[in-house]
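>> received
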Amino acid sequence: MLPEILVFLFLTIQIIYLVFFSNHLFFNYLNLGTLANSLTVCFLLGLCINFFSSADPFFQSFNWNLNLTCSSTFARAFLFFFSALTLLVSTDYLASKNIRQYEYSLLILFSVAGLSVLNLSTDFLSIFVALELQGLAFYLLATFYWNSNFSAESGLKYFVLGSFSSCILLFGFSVIYSITGSTTFEVIQALTIVKTYNFDFLMFGFIFSFTAFLFKVGAVPFHMWLCDVYEGAISPVTMFFALIPKIIIFYVLLKILFCVFASEYVVWSFFCQIFGLLSIFFASIAGIFQKKLKRLMAFSTISHSGFILVGISCFTFLSLKATSFYLIVYVFMNMAVFSVILGSTFHSYFLKYLINWSYFYHRNFILAMTFSFLLLALAGIPPLLGFFSKLMVILTLIDQSEIVLALLTVTFSCIACYYYIRLIKIFFFSVNEKGVWVSMQPRAIELSIATFTTLVSILLAFPDVIMNVTNVFATFFV
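>> returned
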């Protein structure tokens, strides 16, 4: 049975089960939040195990404008695995904040269901429905910390701007449909090849749709929601927003650009270059002036989104490999970074400001060294793994003779190194009374930090492991 069907069945059963237990006085002793989290983690990990043990996991096609390919199978495995890990490492944090509502895991599962359908979509209508399903869950997750007025404010801003972007997306899709008479990728691709359409109107609809996707990934100038939502949401939700949607939304954007509008490469490549370069430049400059950790991580995310857009703009097999390599490395590094942030906010201590991390190595030496290593990797300092991911994008630009764009990208990336190194300087050389003692972390968070930091270190010596995955992904992309 298709995993997406299992997800919706499990979601329905879990809702009925949890509502029954929460309304029955006899069962009030149950901690439904922890129970729901545990069930969801086991279910998602079970789907991952089923993927690896399946005899024929690839190239299964079915109706209703959804299509399962080798590349979408890889993306779905990443989605389920990292969603389960995010839930696992957030359990102790939620308990420390006395957040025990079972709705948290349900909303995570709703968003996973939407993203999973989005991953398989080969039709603009199913893409819109899937994006709205995960979007509704995201709006509620952003405001899940009900005791915080700032969380409610940022969630409301996210809802308003997200609704506006959905309108733009739907308008763009409707214009494309009015020109081509179809919403299916295969039909629109065939029409763009034979040029039997009004080019100006089709590009008009494409630009609106592309703008909405830029909003979803937080690219400049459509990033205005990202910093406030990252700061206002609770840390596990921020972690989920930074990691999980990026994988699927960029994958769907790749399908639309490389498959549907491949013949219009000149148009969308220019937009990818402009918005990608703007994202890297703005995030590099704005990140220097940040005083709060989550806002700093938000601008880091914007910068990485810009790198991915610049890589996409080359429209070659090498660019597809570079983009997928960058995404995998990005997820690994940020999983470890946000695990450190979660661990450092345990026991109700939230290290909100950068100044709170003063003299961090004296308070927890191993955690400070681990965090510093990961920040250097995010900055792209050689010879760490983040350097190789950025190097692949730069080499792709040089291969396409985009020398000026490559030089600008390297320059802005060097500027961005400043705010990563400044944070490390605060760890080791800044002494301030506002620094907070950080003790031992929960076992799940310790395991996550150790696992992904070790992975980032090992893959530095054996990058061929990721390269083999990206080769398969790029080869069977269509």
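>> The chain is about 75% helix and 0% strand.
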